């Protein structure tokens, strides 16, 4: 999953970036509203962490422009302590959730997981496809109750597909959502990761839809 991090305070931004990356997210970041608006309008993100007090263009304006442009990715806003009017304004502008500074990284990660699940029509933190289960809280993957060891990139591909069961996902979409913008992207490597997953999972779980991409389907 790919996250856009928008925070102008360098120390906090570095801490957030590290925490998100440690949790397995691909992270793009910026410290100002102008670049945030551009990235959100031109790149594919699964969620955004958005501070409201930004230079060049404030976070509330950025959020309003995204929503006016039809950008529907979940947005978690960061607000100052006890500034209730800022929270209300953020929610009214189209934010999906808010977090008051200071906060614990674990809470931010939990809120992001919930936002991403809801955006994909998933309610439970444990994603299921037949006997396959992926716990979004722990990153643990099991098949019929037995743990499956995956590399970080194998996990990212499976995680994205598990959030979209029955939906055809193209190689380019997978590439956009598991790598940050500055990563040397190669959509051909997606085939490699899918091939490795098929060796560890039931072979018919990930279906190739010719000319379109991949679809996760539970066995009949």
From TrEMBL:
<feature type="DNA-binding region" description="OmpR/PhoB-type">
    <location>
        <begin position="124"/>
        <end position="218"/>
    </location>
</feature>
<protein>
    <submittedName>
        <fullName>DNA-binding response regulator</fullName>
    </submittedName>
</protein>
<dbReference type="GO" id="GO:0000976">
    <property type="term" value="F:transcription cis-regulatory region binding"/>
</dbReference>
<dbReference type="InterPro" id="IPR001867">
    <property type="entry name" value="OmpR/PhoB-type_DNA-bd"/>
</dbReference>
<dbReference type="Pfam" id="PF00486">
    <property type="entry name" value="Trans_reg_C"/>
</dbReference>
<dbReference type="Pfam" id="PF00072">
    <property type="entry name" value="Response_reg"/>
</dbReference>
<keyword id="KW-0805">Transcription regulation</keyword>
<dbReference type="GO" id="GO:0032993">
    <property type="term" value="C:protein-DNA complex"/>
</dbReference>
<dbReference type="InterPro" id="IPR001789">
    <property type="entry name" value="Sig_transdc_resp-reg_receiver"/>
</dbReference>
<feature type="modified residue" description="4-aspartylphosphate">
    <location>
        <position position="51"/>
    </location>
</feature>
<keyword id="KW-0238">DNA-binding</keyword>
<dbReference type="GO" id="GO:0000156">
    <property type="term" value="F:phosphorelay response regulator activity"/>
</dbReference>
<feature type="domain" description="OmpR/PhoB-type">
    <location>
        <begin position="124"/>
        <end position="218"/>
    </location>
</feature>
<keyword id="KW-0804">Transcription</keyword>
<dbReference type="InterPro" id="IPR036388">
    <property type="entry name" value="WH-like_DNA-bd_sf"/>
</dbReference>
<dbReference type="InterPro" id="IPR011006">
    <property type="entry name" value="CheY-like_superfamily"/>
</dbReference>
<keyword id="KW-0902">Two-component regulatory system</keyword>
<dbReference type="GO" id="GO:0005829">
    <property type="term" value="C:cytosol"/>
</dbReference>
<keyword id="KW-0597">Phosphoprotein</keyword>
<dbReference type="InterPro" id="IPR039420">
    <property type="entry name" value="WalR-like"/>
</dbReference>
<dbReference type="GO" id="GO:0006355">
    <property type="term" value="P:regulation of DNA-templated transcription"/>
</dbReference>
<feature type="domain" description="Response regulatory">
    <location>
        <begin position="2"/>
        <end position="116"/>
    </location>
</feature>
